[in-house]
Amino acid sequence: MGNKRKGSAARAAADREREIADGQIALDAALAQLWESITAGDVLGAEVQVSELLALPDLSDDSDEFHARITAGLISRGASELAPPEQAAFLRLLTALGTKAVKRQASGELADLAADGVYPPEWVTGIGKAVPGQAYRARDVFGDQELIALTFSYGDAEHSIAVALDLAELPAVIMAGVSRDPGKFRKGIEDDLIFGGRLEPITLAEARQRIEGPVARHGSDPDRDLDPASVFALPLVRSRLRRLPAPEPGSLVTYTAADRAAVVAEFQASPLAADAGQPDVARFWAQVLTGYSSRVPGETPAAVGRHRLAAALLVHVPCTFLLSPEQRDGMRQAVTAWTRWAAARQGVDEETAGTLVLYLDGKLDDFAAVYDDAESAALRGYVQDLATPDVDLTWLGDVRARRQLAAAVPDDRDPEDEDIDATEPGGRATLTEHEFASCAPEGPAADKFVATAKRVVEELWHDDPAATWLAGKSLLGKGLDRHDVIHRMVASIDTPGT
User: Fold this and answer.
1) pLDDT band at 437 (very low <50, low <70, confident <90, very high)
2) Which of 168, 201, 357, 497 could form a disulfide with 311 if both were Cys (CB 3.0 to 4.6 A apart)?
3) Are 287 and 343 in contact (CB under 8 A)?
4) Cα–chain-centroid distance for residue 352?
5) Which residues pair with residue 349 across a beta bridge?
6) How many CA atoms does the CB half-sphere of 103 hold within 13 Å?
7) pLDDT 10s digits, 104-125
8) CA 203, 209, 215, 217: dihedral to nearest 10 degrees?
């Protein structure tokens, strides 16, 4: 047995060494190609290759520390393998495409070169200054997914970028790409099974409006992964978005509670409402689904599709609403009728609508297990006291985020605390004590620290005073995790002026 273990460990070590060696070979080849582009003054080629290098940490460890180590290593390689002017060009590329931390590192090195009288070649003035051309949008048959494509040019040389989004929950990036052959690129989109035949022109400002938020949020959802090619493209995509005109405030339509109520009334007055079962149950489900489909600005009430139905029925509802027996029993009949009506309303043909209903049947079969799951029950506890069927989901989302800052969800707690009810003051007090007692200073100040943490948690849960949540959001926006946010807020109260 001992020899087998030793053999297995040796094989694992050998495999790891091969992976490292292969990775080093790939990195050497990528840098050689980049140095060639820099030497030739190929702006776009250099941008694409630097974008790929800057994305490497996102494929493994996305921490700021790892980004800093990777950047330092790249800068060191450039210093040892490039002539000083080309080294300066490489640093200019890093400042144009990198994160704030990368920009700081590269700018410092660039300043040192300038102090020594070393400056980059003239061509670097064009880095990041591609001229925007045309923008296009394509959607799938249900509007669940969309693809935004844009053209840019350096002189007569044109290139394209594209970003595909999943609109089922918050719009999220599912693909990103760059091409030096816009004609071939566009042909590929037009022939695509999902988006083919639906490519229509939009303004550059609208393209930025649709892409910018999802690209900025990429990486915040651990359940969403991109293929490496898309990850490699994102630094360049971010750079190109800055070249687009800013959208006009309010240019995306935001649908109101009155708009949603009118759509629900329209459904109830339709012939399909007769197939929806008990009227008050049918109205409940129509309100829930109509509200979900219009929660994002620019997305109309009663939009329906596979991704939206799955997200609404297997994520949103189980984690939001405490259903009555009548609402559960009447769910299939009401949701099926609403789905048929919504599909017809947005112009989906009967055959395609039929495939949607078949898909819906499977999701309805899965609903009970998801709804009854202990995790779903715990998550809906955070908002079920406020979750009316016609609730404004933007507001409710803010409530959920605030309360989940106050009390960690079960998956993020110590296993022994997973069953504690965070909706009860006593439960929140216990969770807070277990989480922060070890953070407290020694001596008499320990009790005060934990008591202040409990106070912060209650202020967050009840949004009273509102300034506590505003401070919490500000710290979250700086990249701190929830524990560190509360810890810092407690410390600032216990030690004013810190």
Assistant:
1) confident
2) 168
3) no
4) 29
5) none
6) 8
7) 889 999 999 999 999 999 999 9
8) -170
Return left, alpha or beta for 471; rule: phi > 0 is left, psi -120 to 50 is alpha, else beta.
Answer: alpha
Give, as one character, the DSSP assignment of residue 321: -
Residues 6+ apart with CB under 8 A from 355: none
Alpha-carbon distance of 2 to 24, in angstroms, equals 33
Q: What is the pLDDT of residues 331-379, one digit of tens each?
A: 999 999 999 999 999 999 999 999 999 999 999 999 999 999 999 999 9
Q: Which residues contact 164 (CB under 8 A, 6 or more apart)?
A: 145, 146, 147, 148, 173, 174, 175, 176, 195
**Tens of pLDDT along 403-420?**
999 999 998 898 899 999
Q: Distance between CA atoms of 367 and 310, rounded to whole angstroms?
A: 10
Q: Are 289 and 312 in contact (CB under 8 A)?
A: yes
Each as own residue / partner, the long-range contacts of residues 349-355 (CB below 8 Å, 24 or more positions apart, any chain) are: 352/141
Which DSSP letter does residue 496 get? T
**What is residue 475's DSSP assignment?**
H
Pairing of strands 172-179, 200-202: unpaired
As a whole number of angstroms, the distance between CA 382 and CA 421 comes to 10
Q: Which residues contact 349 (CB under 8 A, 6 or more apart)?
A: none
Of residues 154, 164, 157, 226, the one with CA closest to residue 189: 164
Average pLDDT, the chain: 88
Rounded Cα–Cα distance for residues 90 and 50 (Å): 8
Nearest residue to 106 (alpha-carbon basis) of 89, 118, 127:
89
Write the CB contacts of 40 (distance below 8 Å, at least 6 apart in sequence): none
The average pLDDT across 391-398 equals 91
Closest CA to 240 of 305, 109, 150, 304: 150
Tokens of 415: 């296993």
HSE-CB of 182 using CA atoms within 13 angstroms: 16
Residue with tokens 């933007």: 394
Contact between residue 410 and residue 378 where contact means Cβ atoms under 8 Å apart:
yes
Spatial distance between the Cα atoms of 438 and 418, rounded to a whole number of angstroms:
18
Closest by Cα among 90, 79, 78, 82 to 120: 90
Q: Computed from CA positions of residues 256, 258, 260, 262, in that sequence, does the dihedral angle turn out positive or negative?
A: negative
pTM greater than 0.90 (yes/no)? no
Exposure on the CB side of residue 451, measured as CA atoms within 13 A: 6
